[in-house]
Amino acid sequence: MFELQDAFARKFQYLRLSVTDVCNFKCQYCLPDGYRPDGRKSFLTLDEIRRLARAFAAMGTSKVRITGGEPSLRKDFTQIIETLAATPGIQKVAMTTNGYRMAKHAADWRQAGLTAINVSVDSLDPHMFHQITGQNRFHEVMAGIDAAFVAGFEQVKVNAVLMRGLNDGDLDRFLAWIKDNPIQLRFIELMQTGEMDELFQRHHVRGAVIKAILLQQGWQQKIRAHNDGPAEVFWHADYQGEIGLIMPYAKDFCASCNRLRVSSLGKLHLCLFGDYGVDLRDLLADDHDQGALQQRLREALADKKATHFLHEGHTGMTPHLASIGG
Ligand code: SAM
Q1: 205 CB less than 6 Å from ligand 1?
Q2: Mutational test site, ligand 1, from 70, 119, 120, 185, max ligand atoms within 8 Å of CB
Q3: Which residues of the chain have a pLDDT value below 70?
C-alpha cells in the first residue's frame, strides 16, 4: 500500500540515501577544504541499509538514489547496490557520483543492478574543472562517462552548477557536447548552504537566466509528467541530449517535491534545508523493528512543511550538501 504521502498530497516514491559523508573532491561550493574525518561517525552498515530500504519499499518507495559524500568510496558499494536492487518493490537504483571510480567500475555497478547514473561535471575545461573541484581528474571522469555507455546505460545525467565568473562561460561548450550525446545535462542552481555565504553572493546565477537563454536558442520545455520531480526539462530537435534545470528558488519548486532523504548516519530529512533530522538508527539494528520503523516514518511525514525557506536566507541546519546527500 502506498503510504508515503504528506499533508499536501505530495507522494514520495523516491528516497535519496546518503551512504557516507566522505568525499575526495573539494568542490568550492560544497567542501572547499576537503572532507575532515571525524572518527566518531559510523555510517550506515549494509544490514542497516537493507532494513531501511525494506521499510521504505513496504510503504511505497520504488526508487532509491545512492549519494553522499562520494558513495563510490565505500568499499562495499557494489554490495549496497545489490542489496537495494534485491529489495522487493525497489525498481530503480540510481547513484550520484563525482565519477572518479566510474571508468573502472561502471560495468560492475550495472551488473549489480544499478539502473541510472548522475555524474557531476562542473566544467568541460580541464583547468576550470580542477579549479572548481580541487581535483585534476577531468579526463578520468569523462572516461567514466564513456565506460557507462559501454556498460549499457542508455542515458547518463550530468550535473553542473553554473557559477558567475567561473564556469558560466561554459554554457555553449556544454550545449555543443550534448548535440550528439544522449546526455541529460542538469544545471543545478547554486544553493546557499550554511558554510558559503560569500561564495553564494559572488557566484550565484539565477536559473531563470539560463532558462531565458535556452528558450531564445529554440529549446522547448517538456510537459511535466505528474511526479516528475522538480527538474524542468528542455529538448531541441537538433540535439540528442536534453537539459534539466533545477531551480530551488523558483516559485512552486517545492510543490513537485517527490523525495525524502536519509543521511549516512540514519536520520530522515524531510527537506534538504530542514532544521532537524528524525533519528531512525535505533530501529535499524533488528529485523523485528520494521513495524516501528514504518510508524516513525508515518509520523515524521505528517510534519513535512509545504516549502523550504531559502528565499528568506534560511538555509536550515545543512552546513553543506555533502552532509546529508545533496
Ligand atoms: N559526490 C557526489 C557528486 O559529486 O555528485 C554526490 C554528492 S554531491 C553533494 C551531489 C550534488 O550536489 C552534486 O551534483 C553537486 O554539484 C551538488 N551540490 C553540492 N553543493 C551544492 C550547492 N551548494 N548548490 C548546488 N548544488 C550543490
Answers
A1: no
A2: 120
A3: 1, 226-228, 275, 305-319, 323-326
Q: Pocket of ligand 1, candidates 26, 273, 321, 323: which has the most ligand atoms within 8 Å of its Cβ, to mutate?
A: 321
pLDDT at 323: 66
Give the closest residue to 58 by CA, choosing from 306, 291, 317, 314: 291
* CA–CA dist 326, 323 (Å, integer): 8
Cβ atoms of 90 and 57 closer than 8 Å:
yes
244 Cβ inside 6 Å of ligand 1: no
Residue 254: predicted pLDDT: 79
Distance CA(121)–CA(129), nearest Å, equals: 7
User: Ligand 1 mean position to 193 CA, how many Å?
Assistant: 11
Report the nearest atom of ligand 1 relative to the CA of 193: 23
Which pLDDT value is given to residue 324? 60
| Half-sphere exposure for 256 (CA within 13 Å, toward CB) | 16
pLDDT digits (tens, 9 = 90+) for 112-169: 999 999 999 999 999 999 999 999 999 999 999 999 999 999 989 999 999 999 999 9
The answer for residues whose C-beta is within 8 angstroms of residue 326's C-beta and 6 or more apart is: 30, 67, 96, 272
Ligand 1 mean position to 98 CA, how many Å? 9
At 314 the pLDDT is 59
Is 232 touching ligand 1 by the criterion CB < 6 Å? Answer: no
The x, y and z cell numbers of residue 217, run together, are: 536558442
Q: Whose alpha carbon is nearest atom 12 of ligand 1?
A: 326
Cα–Cα distance measured from residue 133 to residue 137, given in angstroms and rounded to the nearest whole number:
9
Query: Whose CA is closest to 29, among 146, 167, 132?
Result: 132
Q: Which ligand 1 atom is at minimum distance from the Cα of 122? A: 16
pLDDT for 272-289, tens place per residue? 777 678 999 999 999 999
